[in-house]
Specification:
mainly alpha, two-stranded antiparallel ribbon, two-stranded antiparallel sheet, 13 helices, 6 strands, DUF349 domain-containing protein, coiled coil
Amino acid sequence: MAVAGPAGPVMSREDVDRALARLGAEHEAIESSLFALQDHSGRRLLEGAELTGVTRERWAVTDAAVTSLWTHFEAYTGALEDARELRARRRWPTQTELARLTELLRGDGVTVTGAAVPDAARALTGPARLTEHLSLDELLRRMNGWYDQAMETVAAADSVWSALPARIDLLAAETQRVRSLAHSVGVRPGAHPSGDDLEELIAELTALRAQTVSDPLAFWRAAPTPGRPDTARYEDAGRRLEDIRREVEAVLHVRDDAEHRLKRLRDVLSRADRTLTEARAARVEVLSKILASDVPAVSGPASALHERLAAAEEFARTARWHRLSPLLDGLEEQADEELLRARDSLTAVTAPLAVRAELRGRLDAYRAKVARLGMAEDPLLIERYDQARRLLWSAPCDLAGADRTVRRYQQAVAEIAAPRTPTDRGEPG
């Protein structure tokens, strides 16, 4: 049975050799990991950056942990080298040497100063001590904890620095392009809401990039694992830029289409004015040629629409496209309505002339029928035709009287022609 000591039963030569092999492999792994941490781009950036906020606080703790990590590794290395040296003295170590090896490999045989322990770790273990006596396993446990803490911090910072600033730069460059386009179509701060939004977005992107550089850990979301950069503000800025871009493109479309739309507006209002002029002239003719008192009045040109058209042309001339757009939308609809109103007015005014023309046409049609039937010399038909013709070709024309005389002529033609054409119903053939 092996003799027991403070570290437990004294290890055998085989136990010592196996423990040294295991600890040697762990030492190589730790050393490799520490060098990887030392060369990590995130650590180098954290050491050289002017940090703020959460990152400054966490890096202060992590930097102290990295320092302690190297100090403990040196102690670990020293203890391992002492054990290897003692084991190498002879092939078959004495019981005293095995006891010493057991103390080095399993006991609290490694001494570290209290200054090598970070403040956070000392707070967990009670008041600070000048020295501590630890086992190699305890050293390893501490180093693993500090290493995980350091790697989490530097990897998170590096991930944010790799993901966000470059993307924000691209978005900022696109924002400047949209800004240039916006200014070309009059979308400027104080002149258009989107101009104000764009300036706010530019300022926000500048502040956002500065914060991601100085405080990257403020943009790290550890849950759910393995964690990821928080891109919510960046994505929101991208959506806002897209909304502004659509508004600017809408204004740009107005600019590109403005001349065509203004030309059409001029044409529609011009046709409306000409139609109203024609209606006024027709009304004068109707009043002079038709005995009627219910001829509707004709309004003048739509001066308000012409004033708004002049304002639209001024907006186009001064490149105020964002103000031109809503004005054109309403003006086009009102101009079309004005043209329809003018046409309806012309139709209403000329209705009596249309009635007179219809009566004249009907009278001529029945006269042609009378000639075909050989009744052109009938005295009654001649008398009634002359009466209707005098009324229809006199000025002012009594439409009501003319209508009655034309009907009387139709009736006379029907009565006289009935014996000759039994199928005739009084309509011209």
